[in-house]
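1st attempt posting a full record on here, be nice pls
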Amino acid sequence: MDKFAKRMKNIEILTFSLASIILVFFSIYIFIHERENVLLGLFKIITSPAILVTDFILVGGIGAAFINAFLILFFNYFLVRLFKVKINGIVIASFFTVFGFSFFGKNILNILPFYLGGILYSIYSTTSFSECLTTISFSSALAPFVSAVAFSKNSIYNEASFINAILIGVIIGFIVVPLSKSCYEFHEGFDLYNLGFTAGILGAVMVAILKMYNFEIARQNLISTEYDMALKFICSSAFLALVIVGYYINDNSFNGYFQLLQDNGYKSDFTCKYGYGLSFINMGISGFIGVLFVSITEQTFNGPVLAGLFTLVGFSANGKNVLNTVPILLGVLLAKFGTNIDSFTLAISGLFSTALAPIAGIFGPVAGIVAGGLHLAVVQNIGLVHGGLNLYNNGFAAGIVAGFLLPIFNMISDNNNTRKINVQKQHMTFLKDIQKAINEREKEKNMEDIQ
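the predicted structure (as C-alpha cells):
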C-alpha cells in the first residue's frame, strides 16, 4: 500500500509539473507578447450569443478563451470530487469535451442553469446528483440557448430576458437525463456522442417554440486564424504530456497497448478494461492523429478545432483508438473529392465524425469509411434543424448516420453469417455423403470377400 501511495504521489507530481510547464510558457506568450486585457475579453465571451460558429478566441482573445476554458474545467472537476463521482472513461471524456467546447459556445455563466436543472431533477426523481452529473455536463451542448435568449439582438438586456434564459437552461437540465436514455436506444451506442444526438432532438423542439414566438436566430461565422502555431504547440505539448504520464503509470512501458488497439470500442470504458496508463497513452496518440488530420486538411487551428481535438482525445478513454477512428477520417477525406466543401467544414466534421468509431470497430474498416463519408454529407445540412444552437451538431448527425446504417450493416452481417452457416452445412452434408459412400463400398467389398 505504501509503494502504491508513493507511486500515485509521483504521478501527481509528474502531471502537475508537465501541466505547469505548458501553462508557464502559455502565460508568457499571452501576458508579455500579446498583452491582452483578459478581463475585458472574458466579459465579451460571457455576453456573446455563442451561436454556431462563435470562436471565443476571436471574440475575447486567446488569453480570455483559455481562462474561460480552465474555469469550466475546474468547476466540473470540483463537482466530480464534491459528489465523489468515480473518474472513469466517460467522466474523462466529459472533462475534455466540455473543456474543448469552452473555446466556442460554452462559458462559465451559460452552463450554470443546466446544473441547476440537473439538481432539481435529482431531487424530483429521488436519485443522487452524482448519477446524472456527467449527463448534465454534456447537456451544456445547448448553452447557446441561454446566451442567445439573454444577449441576442432580439433581447433588450433586462430582467425578463435573463430570467427566460435561465428558465430555458433549467428546463433542459431537468428533462435531459430521461431523454438521453431514450435517444440512446435509437443508435444502440454506435454514436459515442449520445448527448449530441439528444441535444439535437431537444434543440429542434426548443427552436420550433422560439420561432413560433418570432424569436430570430442569426447564424454567425466568427473564426480566428492568427494563433495557428501557438495552438499547435499547446496541443502537441498537452498530447505528449498525456503519453509521458500514461507511460509512467503503465510501469514505464507500452505493454498492453496493442490489445487496446484491437478493442472495437463498442461500450468500452478503456480505464476499466486496460487501466489509466494505457488510456492516457491512447489519448495522447489519438491527439496526434487529430493534429495530423487537421494539417492534411490545411485548416488553421482555432477554437472549434480545439473542441474537435479535445473531444477526440477525451473519448479515446471511452471507445476510440487509432484502428477504429482512422477509417472514419479516411471516409471523410474521400467524400470530399468532387465537392466544394471548405477546409474548415472538412476538418471539424472529420474530427467529430469519430463518434462513429464503434461502427468501424464492429463492422470493419470499409463500414467505417462509408460511415465517415455519409457523416460529412449529413452534418452540413442538419444544423438547420436546431438553428445552430446545439454545439454538438456533429453528435446529432452521427446519431442519425448510425441509426440509418445500423440496420443495413446488421442485415449484411446476418446475411454473411447465414451464408457461412449454409456453406458449413453443405460442406458437412458433402462429407457425410462421402463417408456414407465409403461405408457402402466397404460393405460391398466385405460381401465379395465372404462369397
